[in-house]
Specification:
The complex is a heterodimer of chains A (183) and B (643).
Chain A (H helix, E strand, L loop, with lengths): L6 E9 L9 H9 L7 E2 L6 E6 L4 E6 L13 E4 L2 E4 L38 H5 L5 E9 L8 H13 L1 H16 L1
Antiparallel strand pairs in A: 1-7, 3-4, 5-6
Helix pairs in contact in A: 3-4
Chain B lengths: L7 E6 L4 E6 L2 H7 L2 H12 L13 E4 L14 E6 L6 E6 L3 H8 L3 E5 L6 E6 L2 E6 L8 H12 L5 E4 L2 H4 L7 E3 L2 E3 L4 H6 L2 E7 L4 E2 L3 H17 L14 H6 L1 E2 L4 E2 L6 H14 E5 L9 E4 L7 E4 L2 H9 L3 H14 L5 H14 L15 H14 L3 H5 L2 H9 L10 E2 L2 E2 L5 E3 L2 H9 L20 H9 L7 H9 L8 H21 L23 H9 L5 H21 L14 E3 L2 H15 L9 H6 L3 H9 L13
Parallel strand pairs in B: 1-6, 7-12, 21-22
Antiparallel strand pairs in B: 1-2, 3-4, 3-6, 4-5, 7-8, 9-12, 10-11, 14-15, 16-17, 17-18, 19-20
Helix pairs in contact in B: 2-19, 2-21, 10-11, 10-12, 11-13, 12-13, 16-19, 16-22, 19-21, 19-22
The chains are: A alpha+beta (183), B alpha+beta (643).
Chain lengths: 183, 643
């Protein structure tokens, strides 16, 4: 069966936080590329990439916008990496209610990195092209695409609930229901 | 639609708490570009010479540059202008980082601050929502600490903050305004403190529109790559471990002693190892691929950014080593003290103490160790306590307040302002002109395009000239070919070069370009990304303005003359235009007089250094002429032909 699966090209942008100089050219270029018409305006707050900077803690993390999360998460862990403290949000790609990142400033709608889809395709996404220090590099690698199992109706329903209320709340509710049924 | 600029200034009156968004005249952009050009115009129109720098009527202006928030790499230097209480002239200062572009995205080209608050406040600019907020809880906080606290309280980590420290709050003349990895000095921090304005926080989410976007974006991507790969631009010294240039050639202590054989391999190894140990990273400013600022984490101090020559100024003033400099910067930068002038003020005080002009009676508890004395005086100065209250006024004024012969020890100021500690042999005509006539108070803001030294052979000179893209025309190439000895430049060449050097700075301060990519870097190797040949195109692509090289020079001249006019109206005259007596050991008074005469003539200024009617009128500054005639600064009959 496995041999029948088609190899899938996974495109990714690798981030080396030690190389980031905090210049935010990536934000500038991203906003220009996604402007309509292209390049007609500059607005880093509309960029789908953000450099999270905290000068006092020496935190410089470029983060690309990922999927939108409708609910806040419960995880606010702190990570100590090489003696420097990062909070979990510094690495999180979600456009979420707990922070102002990755939302179109006028409408509040979530923004998501599309790897600079273009016709003809760009050699590399624009943020990578302008990142001279090499903190951002473009990577293509082969992965396997697995066959997707058809999802059950229940699962789809639960996912909708967890998107709306947050997975933790749904789990808590299920736990409460199951204890009350047992009791 | 206006391209690259927002077309609005934010006007803040701190006395009444009034905030207004005021539309600007697009014609002013065409004739001054922006930045310091248009700021000088506002100061000319609204701050007459009768206004004392500490009056509520003095204005403090933060200007973005015309090219901020465009794709042009390295366009990020914000200009701060006011009237300085130290010089009673225009205070010119620039700082990098992210502030100017953010301000534009918030919808403003400038913040014009007048009046004076009754209590300590900060300004929060969040697009159209602008508030004056209480800052009493930030009293005495460090510059970076203030920025972090404000971001926290506003829940806006993306806000860009410019803040003063204790030095600014206490109206210390050497106070800076600090922002991210940069700071503005030379008389602006003291006025921000005088207005009781602790900080400005800005967040902007509006578009900035570009006139010819695709072309500009492509040109800029190419430029960014070139800038990154060009080792001659940025701040190469920020990455080098070899400190020969400054340590062996600049004067130590109170600008006294050159230590020509100071630097050696052993020191280089030792200092390099120390730097590697405490340097976290090197950072750049908004949309610039260079990394001119080192992030230093020194034990016991909070992280700070190392800027330019600040790495060495305290250690040279104190005859100490690098560890001393790294440690004291951890203190002084949070206080918001300028690293150029502060060490000189302290070294000056130490000499007065050694000479018995100030004594233990003036300074009870003054320590005996020279290093401890520096920290002790820093604490006194930032609090304006005891002797610190006098020293906080800078060397020139402190010397006159102390009297008793202290004036003799003020030997390194021009126009009442502390200069870089350079003491050399024979007078250099070009440098004589730049020091004498510059109005930006520091040679680094005046010199920079023409190489500092000639090349030894004709073959080398020819090779250099062949690739010298930045030279404005063949005349400059010929001057360089004919130039054999450093201090041997004909009068005519000295005038033309001085004019070009300072012109580039006046262009940069209007469009917001960093001097490390432009006005300051040509002197070291000539190959720079920005020059008078490509800047007009970039401005045209970004703004849609029709601008060529002649037009750019004309605007540069207009801005230059307007700044001179502002200062002339406040009393600047020929008598003030002189480098320190001992800047060179061997002087040539007759040649110096001839030079100054020739330069004034070249500029279309009279023998007092006052722009003539013809010069002003030709630049469209006839309103200056009228003012000068009314005030009897010029007479109706005076005629100086325009060259």
């Amino acid at each position: 069966m496995r041999s029948g699966l088609k190899p899938k090209i996974i495109k990714d942008i690798k981030v080396d936080v030690d190389k980031c100089t905090g210049c935010r050219a990536c934000e500038m270029a991203c906003s220009a590329f996604h402007a309509v018409p292209k390049y007609s305006s500059i607005n880093p707050s509309k960029a789908r990439i953000r450099v999270i900077i905290d000068e006092l803690r020496d935190v410089y993390v470029p983060v690309r916008a990922g999927d939108c999360a409708n609910a806040e998460c419960n995880g606010r862990q702190l990570y100590i990496i090489n003696g420097k403290q990062y909070d979990e949000c510094a690495f999180c790609r979600a456009s979420c209610p707990s922070r102002n990142y990755f939302k179109e400033p006028d409408s509040g709608l979530p923004l998501k990195c599309d790897m600079c889809e273009n016709e003809p395709p760009l050699s590399e996404p624009m943020c990578v092209q302008v990142c001279q220090p090499g903190a951002l590099t473009y990577e293509k690698r082969e992965g396997e695409s697995g066959e997707e199992k058809p999802r059950e109706e229940l699962e789809i329903g639960l996912e909708a609930l967890s998107t709306k209320h947050g997975l933790q709340k749904v789990m808590d509710a299920l736990a409460r229901m199951s204890t009350s049924k047992k009791g | 639609m206006r391209y690259t600029e927002t077309g609005f200034n934010l006007e803040v009156d701190l006395t009444r708490g009034n905030i207004e968004r005021v539309e600007t005249d697009p014609r002013l952009t065409e004739i001054h570009l922006g930045g310091q050009g248009t700021a000088a115009r506002i100061l000319w129109d609204r701050v007459p010479p009768e206004v004392d720098p500490f009056s509520p009527d003095n204005l403090l202006i933060f200007s973005s540059g015309l090219l901020h928030a465009t794709p042009v790499p390295g366009a990020n230097r914000t200009v701060v202008n006011t009237i300085s209480p130290q010089t009673n002239l225009l205070a010119h200062s620039l700082f990098g980082g992210y502030f100017g572009p953010e301000l534009k995205h918030a919808g403003y080209d400038k913040i014009v601050i007048g009046g004076k608050s009754s209590s300590l406040v900060y300004l929060w600019i969040n697009n159209d929502n602008v508030e004056i907020r209480d800052a009493s809880h930030l009293r005495g906080k460090g510059c970076q600490e203030t920025a972090a606290l404000i971001r926290q309280e506003l829940k806006e980590p993306k806000a860009q903050v410019a803040a003063i420290g204790l030095a600014g709050e206490n109206r210390v003349y050497m106070a800076t305004i600090d922002h991210a990895n940069a700071s503005a000095s030379r008389g602006v921090g003291v006025i921000m403190g005088d207005k009781r304005l602790k900080a400005i926080a800005v967040r902007g989410t509006n578009n900035i529109n570009i006139a010819r976007p695709t072309e500009l974006f492509e040109v800029c991507n190419r430029l960014r790559k070139e800038i990154y790969e060009n080792p001659k631009c940025g701040d190469p010294m920020a990455h080098e471990d070899d400190e020969t240039f400054h340590l062996n050639n600049f004067a130590w202590g109170n600008a006294r002693e050159r230590k020509k054989g100071y630097w050696n391999e052993e020191l280089e190894k030792k200092w390099a190892a120390l730097t590697r140990k405490v340097r976290d990273r090197e950072t750049g400013c908004y949309n610039c691929p260079k990394t001119c600022h080192a992030v230093i984490k020194w034990p016991g101090r909070s992280r700070y950014f190392l800027k330019c020559f600040n790495k060495l100024t305290y250690l040279m003033a104190a005859h100490k080593e690098l560890d001393f400099n790294y440690d004291i910067l951890g203190v002084t930068q949070e206080y918001g003290l300028d690293g150029f002038s502060t060490p000189q003020v302290i070294a000056f005080a130490l000499e007065l103490y050694e000479a018995g002009i100030i004594t233990d009676q003036d300074m009870p508890g003054f320590p005996s160790d020279v290093g401890e004395r520096f920290y002790w005086l820093v604490e006194k100065i930032v609090r304006r306590e005891g002797i610190g209250d006098i020293l906080a006024n800078g060397v020139y004024r402190a010397a006159r307040q102390i009297g008793n012969g202290a004036e003799q020890y003020d030997h390194n100021t021009i126009k009442k302002f502390e200069q870089v500690t350079i003491k050399l042999g024979k007078v250099n005509p070009l440098y004589f002109l730049m020091y004498a006539t510059g109005e930006k108070m520091n040679i680094t803001q005046i010199e920079g395009s023409y190489p500092q030294d000639p090349l030894p052979t004709m073959a080398e000179r020819e090779r250099f000239v062949k690739d010298w893209v930045a030279a404005p025309n063949d005349k400059f190439k010929q001057m360089f070919l004919n130039w054999e000895k450093r201090n041997d430049l004909p009068v005519e060449a000295s005038c033309a070069i001085c004019d070009w050097n300072e012109m580039m700075h006046y262009i940069d301060d209007a469009i917001g370009l960093c001097g490390f990519l432009s006005s300051f870097r040509g002197q070291f190797g000539g190959r720079i990304p920005y020059h008078t040949h490509n800047i007009p195109d970039l401005i045209s692509l970004a703004t849609g303005m029709d601008l060529d090289e002649d037009g750019l020079w004309e605007i540069g001249r207009r801005n230059r003359n307007l700044v001179r006019a502002l200062n002339v109206r406040r009393g600047l005259r020929r008598k003030d235009e002189k480098p320190p007596e001992d800047h060179w050991k061997i002087r040539d008074p007759e040649m110096e007089t001839r030079l100054l005469d020739a330069y004034y003539e070249f500029k279309g200024w009279n023998r007092e250094g006052i722009p003539g009617k013809e010069t002003l009128d030709q630049l469209g500054l006839d309103y200056v002429t009228q003012d000068f005639i009314q005030r009897a600064i010029l007479t109706d009959s005076e005629s100086i032909p325009v060259k």
